[in-house]
Write a structure and sequence with these properties.
The protein is of the alpha+beta class and about 675 residues long. Among the domains are: about 240 residues, alpha-galactosidase from lactobacil brevis (Beta-galactosidase, Chain A, domain 5), CATH 2.70.98.60; about 100 residues, Immunoglobulin-like. Helix content is about 20%, strand content about 30%. The strands form eight sheets. A nine-stranded antiparallel beta sheet has the order 4-5-6-7-18-14-13-10-11. Helix 6 runs parallel beside helix 8. The protein is globular, with a radius of gyration of 26 Å. The N terminus is likely disordered.
Amino acid sequence: MFLFYPCQAQSISKMDSKPVNVQKWVSSYFGHGKLPPFSFKYGDKNSADFIKQWKYALIKLPSTEENQQKYLVTYQDPTTALRVECNISAYSDFGVVEWVLHFINNGSTNTLQISQVRTSDISFEYPQKGKFILHYANGSNAGRDDFSPKEKELYPGDSLRMRPSGGRSSDSAFPFFNIESSANQGVLVSIGWTGTWYSNIRCLDNQSVSLTSGIEKLNTYLTPHESIRTSSICLLFWHGANRMIGHINFRRFLLAHHSRHIDGKPVYYPMSAGFNWGDPEPCNEYSCLTTEYAIALIQRTKLFKIVPEVFWLDAGWYKGSADYFDNKNWYNSVGNWVVDSVRFENGLRPISDAAHKVGSKFMVWFEPERVYPKTLWATKHPEWLLKTGDENLLFNLGNPDALKWICKNIGDFLQDNGIDYYRQDFNIAPESAWSAADQPKREGMTEVKYIEGLYAYWDYLLQRFPNLLIDNCASGGRRLDYETILRSAPMWRTDYQYSEPIGYQCHTYGLEFYLPQHGTGAYFVNRFDFRSSLSSAVVYNWKLTQQGQSYIEMQKCIQEFNDVRPYFYEDFYPLSGVRDITKNDIWLAYQLHKPSDDTGYIIAFRRDQNLQRTYQVHLAGLNANKLYLLQNKDSGETIKKTGRELAAGLTLTLDNPRTSLLIKYTPITTAK
């Protein structure tokens, strides 16, 4: 259901030709007597009509990072004691402002209805007239076009509304987008809410565009001393002739301020490997794995010098998942979060010990939010489960007792079994369960409390285990938003057809506009297929027991990944535009550039049905006056060209379809 709210007064951000000073921006738009860049309805009145009369305070908070300033802005209703807190962080090094709202009832009676909460309600007015271009992307729907880049020209009166499907934040919509003006500047927006968010971008006139966003279904009162939070919003203001400046700065911002650090150092997400997924028949996932077989496979990777950074145990290790004669499998036994003692007599610790012995980490799959009837969790705590409309039940993270219990239960399990990294899947659309559980006049509260519980659960794990990484999976990448990427990364970004390389190329290309950390599977060792899976993380699914597999080729793939991976943490430039990138008859190419030493890679694919042996690309980010050495990593051939020449056009050549290029470039001198 789409909700169209009546027009309210908006905060207007007048953008001039200079880069935004974010501290001044905060003072201007959250200052005393100013209409803040958010809105809501309280009772039957819009906040624009009363917020300036509420008791106001702005406090500067201690900064926790360099180039960061934190603020707490509060507005309090003198009559009902409803308090609105806005937690703000401004980052001067990247021109970023982010905030989140909290509604708190400090009174002794219920509040009036709080509704139409817009975490962002603001218009941007630019100094130059013209059209606006909205750059956005598909969410995930297990398709070849998952995360594909899209753009929409906006003229006065045009708009685009987005919201995810089913309650997972990137299911068929993507909460990251870039609004480009005709004034060589714009704003890159990211929304943090791991449920049903919405955004609406509307062109008001040929100089102004508005942005509203929030939680789609929220119409509730608060009981005495009750509080809730809203979605969060992050705005990155950019200036320059190319909208990629916004994308590049956002990637840099995430890595500088919101990536996982361990022992004070940023963490690379790993190259992982499983344990011969899915065999033998009729087994699926890892429902027939045993301790002995897992350890033997670990030793086999050591023998062939292809030890991964992480051994990944996915679904099917728990009680009931291998009871095929009782029609049980990995899917319909979730809720039995104890180790299958028949296959793993001493738990999972022997496997983790074996992984650690060869220098690897150990990661295990969980899906604690989805509970199947008659499993251990379903029978032990039925009061914590929500009905979904099918056979699945939803473990209610919004219940304080349930939240406390799951934190300790899963936390102790990780500790007892020596598990280093935590993988959380979520193969259910929760929106209908949340709605069904809402009480009268409390629409949206089940979802809000649930999402608050999810964040508290992940924060608990990250605090208890300082070296932990969380792999965020929800039927692939269907839970990607600003809040989840602060805590996790998708190491399996889509459940699209396993091993299909064209789709994998598309997913990398689309996600790289926004997120530098993500991964996918690699099934084959030929260059075309393996390079299609390249990104900042990868999961190799090579079966060492399968005839015809070459461990020499596996070693080469691992070395190539190690060479290229650091560049996925640098600047990304698309070289094939934003047309339909899913076709079989095109070239697809992109560039990874490292500004600190001016080196980089070009990765290109000539697809199966493409008839053109050459393709021209225009490199970006280079020094026009430098001379670069370009080396084809397959043939060893080299050429020399200046940065100016490479920007004007470089011709790529592949004689045959379904082939790829990997070209490394390095500056060698300053051109005369």
